[in-house]
Amino acid sequence: MNIQNTINRFPVINKIIQICLLMIIPVHTAFAQQQVLGSAELFTKGSVTYGRFEVRMRMVGADGVISSFFLWKQDSGDNDAIWNEIDIEVLGCSRKGFQSAIHYGTGGWSNMQHLESFHHVDRDLTSGYNTYTIEWTPDYISWKLNDSLIRKDNSDLIKKFRDVPMQMRFNIWPSLNPSWAGQFNPEVLPRHLYINWIKYYKYTPGKDSSFTPEWEDKFDSDTLGARWSTGFWESPDKASTHIDKNVNVKNGAAILTLSEYAKHGFNGILPQDNQGGTTFPKEFRRGR
C-alpha cells in the first residue's frame, strides 16, 4: 500500500495527521532540550507566614530566559493541592521592566487565577544589580523596585493567602513561549542570575514598624548555608532540568546558572555591584 496516496485520497485523515505532527514536534523538542540543558532553583527549606522579602540581584538579559524571585507554598503542585505563589520575573525579551504576579487555585495552570502586571522602567534591569522587594501581609501584597512602590494589591484574592506559609525561591530557566519571553536560543548560554544579598523582615503589626529584621544572608562563605536547598526537577516548560551544580557561591554572591547540562557551574568573573559589593542599608540590623 502506498501510504502517501492513501493520505492524499482522504483529506480529513491528512489534516488529522498534520495536526498530530504539530503536537508531537514541540513535545519532542522540549524533551530533547531537557536532556541537554541544566537550569537552577534555590529555595529556603523552611516556610514563613507574612513578611518583607528583599533581594539585591542581577537578573538575566537573554531572549527566552526567565529569571525570577518568588514566594511559593510548598507542595502546591501536588494533585488536588491549592497553589499559592507570588512572583517577580524578568523576561529576557523585556529587560526594561519586570512582571509581578499572584497565582492561586486548583485544577491546573489554565484553571487558576492569575493577577499579572508588567511594569516598564526607563533602563535595562539586567545591566546591573537592583533591589527587589515583596511585602506580604494579611491585607495586602506589594512589590517594590529599589525602594520605590511599583504595585500594591489588596483585592479579595489576598484573603486566599492568609495563614499560608510559603518559601522564598529563585530560579532561572528557558521558556518555550516566544510571545511571552522571546525566542530562546541555546547558543547564548551560559547565563547567570547573581544574588548579592537577601534580607527577611518578620511581620510585626502594632510595633513602630510593621516589619522587624529577622535574618540576612550575604553569601560570604564558599558554600550555601543550612537555610538553603536546591532544585532537582524539570523547569516549568520542561525544556531543562534543575541541577544542584548550577547553584554556586563565590565572592559574596549566590549564582544560578542556565547552561548546557554537561557544562554546568560558574567559572566566570563575578560582576560587581555598583554599591560596592555586599552592602546593606544602614538601618538594617538582624533581629534576635
Description:
There is one protein chain. The chain is globular, with a radius of gyration of 21 Å. It has one domain: Jelly Rolls (Sandwich). It is built from three helices and 16 strands. With 288 residues, it is mainly β. The N and C termini lie far apart (80 Å). Strand 5 and strand 6 (113-120) form a beta hairpin. The chain has a 16-stranded mixed beta sheet that branches.
Outline of this structure?
The chain is mainly beta. Helices cover 13% and strands 39% of the residues. A hairpin with a 7-residue loop joins strand 5 (97-105) and strand 6 (113-120).
Which helices and strands appear, and what pairs or packs with what?
Elements: H1 3-9, H2 11-36, E1 37-44, E2 51-58, E3 65-72, E4 83-91, E5 97-105, E6 113-120, E7 130-136, E8 141-145, E9 148-153, E10 167-174, H3 178-181, E11 191-203, E12 211-217, E13 228-230, E14 241-242, E15 247-250, E16 253-260
Parallel strand pairs: 1-14
Antiparallel strand pairs: 1-10, 1-13, 1-16, 2-7, 2-11, 3-4, 3-10, 4-5, 5-6, 7-8, 8-9, 11-12, 11-16, 15-16
